[in-house]
Design brief:
single chain, 316 residues, alpha+beta, Immunoglobulin-like, five-stranded antiparallel beta sheet, 5 helices, rod-shaped
Amino acid sequence: MSEPDAQGIANNTRNPAGTPPPPSQSFGGTAEHKEANASNGTPKRSRKLREAPKWIEAACAILLVFITAFYTFYAARQANASKKAAKAALSAAITAEQTLLEIQKGGTDTHELAVQAKNQADRTKDLADRTHDQAIAGKQAADAATSAANTAKETLRVSERAYVASGQMALDEDQKTIKFPLVNSGHIPSGVATPIIHVATMEHINPLRNEERIPIIDCYWSGERVESVTPGSPYVFTLHIPKLDKDKLRDGKQEVRVAGFIEYYDGFPDSTAREWPVCTTFYYSDKALMNSPCDSALVIQDIIKCDKYPLTQNKR
């Protein structure tokens, strides 16, 4: 039903007698007619305003539906974005945790490697120390063996080598000679032996006085080379004393001194020269011929002033 029809029905209801509506006025009527029309039009606009919310409400409802749908869609997208961001954050956190675990594991592995390296270094040092100790022990053993060998060699040398010395000298007053034997008391023949012997005949100026130095009236030195002295077979030299006076000797006016040294080799291949000192004084005491040992170093110093050793060698 159209709006004029609905309005006519409403007018008939208000005017039951069927009184016809008043005649329409022209648009250009008087002011009174305009005011009357204005007053008559106010209820119509009010009714229109009261009837308007129905379709506005429908439109608003539809718009609200669209707005709600749009908001829901937007909220869903935001939720999805937030969910994705949360997943990304969770993934990043998991990755960071795994990375941290790997770093910690790597640090633990590095520490373990360092500990193992230190242990290996300690074992290597221990091995080196043991090797060093073994080397020292080996050297000590070798030194001990060498020392034992040297000791054995020296012991053998000491027990077996030649020992050359002067034997018991004998003065012959009538022949004016002295028998000077070289004796080897060792077990093997000696090497070359060379006795350097100084002979001096001394005569007291006053036999009753104790003279510190007895004047020498005759002297010489002799040095003879002997290729070897065999054990048990003495090699005998003969020393001459031309100015020996038997009477003066027996009266205590003369003395004869024999001093020097024997240079020899002990018979071993690597032997070095060895020396044996010699010093004997012949004199009479209580009508008996005596031969007494003396200090060769002191006696030789006195005799060489006379015999000019080693410049000249006088053999008598």
